[in-house]
Amino acid sequence: MIQVRISDDALNDLILGFRFYEAQETGLGEYFLSQLRTDIDGLKISECQKVRPDPNTNPLDRSFQ
């Protein structure tokens, strides 16, 4: 598994995101962090699989499908 590093600026943004969601409703900030952890773990796994994009498609096209 690869190591994911989060810059100080990004970490500050995540803390602000946690505080924002927690202010909306108690527990929502924890849910936000839980989803982040899930997404980061998914990045680690997908990087290990080294999925190669189809050279016949434009990566931007996939964003809108």
Estimate nothing, just give the exact number of structural domains.
Answer: 1
Structural class by SSE content: mainly alpha
* Proportion of residues in helical segments: 55-70%
What portion of residues belong to β-strands?
under 5%
Q: What is the count of DSSP helices, taking H or I runs of 4+ residues?
A: 3
Low-confidence stretches: none
List the helices and strands and how they pair.
Layout: H1 8-24, H2 28-49, H3 59-63
Helix pairs in contact: 1-2
Structural descriptors:
65 residues; mainly alpha; 68% helix; 0% strand; elongated
Q: What's a quick, concise take on this entry?
A:
By secondary structure, this protein is mainly α. Helix content is 68%, strand content 0%.
Give your account of this protein's structure.
Helix 1 packs across helix 2 (28-49). The chain has helices at residues 8-24, 28-49, 59-63. It is elongated and about 45 Å long. The chain has one domain (8-63). The longest helix has 22 residues, at 28-49. Helices cover 68% and strands 0% of the residues.
